[in-house]
Specification:
Length: 87
């Protein structure tokens, strides 16, 4: 599993899965055990205006060596907050 790191924690040498959550944003990463400090990394980002994403049944998928989690949009855009106003 992943463990949460806080701003006051010592992040030095943190291996395995870690995450930080602040103001509705989530950043997660995985550092393999024994990885050298100069090991390259990848940054992946996403965004949705839907109220939330729900994990699908049997969500574990993957292709080309990448692991993925299947999600679906739950809810909708709150259109009534801007459709009834002049542009």
């Amino acid at each position: 599993g992943f463990r949460e790191l806080r701003g006051t924690d010592d992040w030095t040498g943190a291996t395995g899965g870690c995450f930080v959550s602040r103001a509705g944003a989530l950043i997660a990463w995985y550092v393999p055990e024994g990885a050298p400090a100069h090991t390259p990394f990848r940054i992946i980002g996403t965004h949705t205006d839907s109220p939330n994403l729900r994990i699908k049944p049997a969500p574990d998928t993957g292709t080309s060596g990448w692991r993925q989690i299947g999600v679906e949009i739950y809810g909708g855009v709150p259109l009534n907050t801007w459709l009834d106003r002049d542009l």
